[in-house]
Amino acid sequence: MGVELLCLQEARHLVNRSSKYWIAVGPLYASTVITPMTAQVARAAYFFCRHIDDILDGDRIIPYPREYVSSIQKGMEGDSGPRIVDLYKFVMNRVDGVENDFRELIDMMLFDYDRSLEKRILTGQELRDYYRRLFFPVFDIGFRVVGSSLRGNDVSDMVEVLGRLYSIRDMEEDLSKGVINIPKEEIKQSGVYDLSYTIVRSNSHLLRWMNVEVYKQSQELSRQKSVLRTIGNDNGIWKSGIWVCLLLIGAMERYSKRYLQKM
After folding, report:
1. How far apart are CA 103 and CA 91, in angstroms?
2. Residue 237 DSSP SS3
C-alpha cells in the first residue's frame, strides 16, 4: 500500500472521529500547494505518530496495545512490522536526525499508557516536566521536517502553555481513560480522589483551579504569540515552521475564549 493511501486512511479515521482534528489534518493537505514534498513527509510523520497514540489511548480497539506498539518499534529497527511502519521509513529516508525524536515520543506515549492503567497522579512539577518530554520531540520532528533550525527547546514556554490548556480541554476524555493531568497538590486540597469529570466539575476547589488555569494560560498565549512572531520575522514564518505554532495558539485562543465566556 502506498504512503499517500495510508495517510488518507488515517486522515479519514481522525476526522470521522472528531471535527477537532481538522486543525491538524487540514493544513497538512492544504500546504501541498506550496511545498508538495515537505507536506507529504509531514503527513507521514503525523499520521504515524497519531496512529500509535490512538492505539494506546484506546481510540482504536485492538487486543494487546502494548504488544502491537512493540511490533511497530521492532519494525522501526528493521524487522517486519505493521504497514504503518512504512510511514516512519518514508520520513527516515527524507529527514536527517529524526530517529531519536520518534523513539522519545513513543516512549512518552507508552508512559501515558502505563499511567492510565495505574491512574497515576503527578505533582505540578512532574506535569510541567511531562509536557516538555511529550511535546519537545513532537516539535523537533515538525521543525526537522520543514528544514528549520529551531527545536522544541526554542519554544519551551509555548509548549508548557499548550500542554496545560490541552489538559483542561481534554480532561473529560482523559479522565475516562484513567489519564489524570490534575496536579497532585490540587487533588489533595480538593479532598477528592475518586476522580471523574462530573466530580471534578462539581468540586469547588478543582473548578476554581480549572478556571484560574485557563485564565492565566490564555493571558500567556498572547505573550507567546508575540514571541513567536519575533522568531518568525527573524527566521521566516514559513521556513522556520512558526506558522504551525501560530495555528496551534490560535486554536487554543478560541478554546480559551469560549471557556471563559461560560464561566
Report:
1. 14
2. coil
Cα separations in angstroms, 102 against 86, 138, 162, 184: 14, 8, 20, 29
Distance CA 168, CA 74 (A): 35
pTM, 2 dp: 0.90
Query: Environment class of residue 182 by beta-carbon count within 10 Å: exposed (0-12), middle (13-18) or buried (19+)?
Result: buried
Give the pLDDT band (50/70/90) at residue 33: low
- The two counts, helices (H) then strands (E), for the chain are 13, 0
Do residues 218 and 257 make contact, with C-beta atoms less than 8 angstroms apart?
A: yes
Please classify residue 86 by burial: count the beta carbons closer than 10 Å to its beta carbon, then call 0-12 exposed, 13-18 middle and 19+ buried. middle
CA gap 79, 236 in Å, rounded: 40
Residue 42 C-alpha cell reads as 509531514
Is the distance from CB of 18 to CB of 27 less than 8 angstroms?
A: no
User: Among candidates 135, 161, 172, 170, which has minimal Cα distance to 217?
Assistant: 161
Cβ atoms 253, 246 nearer than 8 A: no
**Domain segments of the chain: what residues?**
1-94, 121-263
Please tell me whether residue 83 adopts helix, strand or coil conformation: coil
Task: Give the separation between CA 224 and CA 164, rounded to whole angstroms.
Answer: 14
Torsion of CA 84, 85, 86, 87, to 10 degrees: 70
Q: What would the grid cell of residue 227 be?
A: 514571541
| Residue 32: pLDDT band with limits 50, 70, 90 | confident
